[in-house]
């Protein structure tokens, strides 16, 4: 298991098949996946299959990462960058267990991911895609410095695309 980043409170590391139970539990909560377009896994075995076949690290050198509490070592959720070849773009995404919402974990981990993307991966821009009714995630994207670009079809629902460019990160205190 490869550690990627640390923040004041968090460790971000590559996902492993040992995270199967956490992944299964995370997607069981309808509140957690309400705005994602994803569905729950039918079993831990299905979550394990997903993780066994998750090859973003090999293909792109980065991906979604497990977010671990430094003190308790609890798996809080995931956060990270995802490259989409067809659009030649990288998006920032995050998903946390509901009991960890509104504690700043999404913002803290996503800031670290953006910094990593711009400094280490030399990305020129990062997008964030969100359904219009997902106000909590919109607030996180805006805190991160992403700005609204346009609407898009998010699995048959109205979605919004936010974006931040490397050139615009100078004003952000975390970069």
From TrEMBL:
Domain of life, per lineage: Bacteria
Pfam families hit by this protein: Acetyltransf_3 (PF13302)
Residue spans crossing the bilayer: none
Gene3D superfamilies: 3.40.630.30
Keyword Nucleotide-binding (UniProt): no
Keywords associated with the record: Transferase
GO MF annotation terms: acyltransferase activity, transferring groups other than amino-acyl groups
Keyword Transferase: yes
Segments forming domain N-acetyltransferase: 10-167
Alphabetical list of PANTHER family matching this protein: GNAT FAMILY, PUTATIVE (AFU_ORTHOLOGUE AFUA_3G00765)-RELATED-RELATED, N-ACETYLTRANSFERASE DOMAIN-CONTAINING PROTEIN
Protein name in the entry: N-acetyltransferase
Organism: Flavobacterium crocinum
């Amino acid at each position: 298991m490869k550690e990627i980043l640390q923040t004041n409170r968090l460790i971000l590391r590559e996902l492993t098949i040992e995270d199967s139970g956490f992944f299964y539990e995370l997607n069981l909560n309808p509140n957690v996946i309400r705005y994602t377009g994803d569905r729950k896994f039918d079993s831990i075995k299905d979550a394990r299959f997903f993780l066994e076949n998750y090859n973003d690290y090999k293909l792109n050198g980065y991906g979604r990462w497990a977010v671990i509490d430094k003190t308790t070592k609890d798996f809080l959720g995931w956060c990270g960058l995802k490259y989409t070849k067809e659009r030649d773009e990288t998006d920032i995404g995050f998903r946390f267990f509901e009991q960890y919402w509104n504690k700043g974990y999404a913002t803290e981990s996503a800031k670290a991911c953006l910094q990593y993307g711009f400094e280490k991966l030399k990305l020129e821009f990062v997008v964030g895609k969100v359904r219009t009714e997902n106000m909590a995630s919109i607030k996180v994207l805006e805190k991160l410095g992403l700005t609204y670009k346009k609407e898009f079809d998010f699995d048959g629902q109205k979605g919004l695309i936010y974006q931040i460019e490397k050139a615009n990160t100078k004003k952000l205190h975390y970069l």
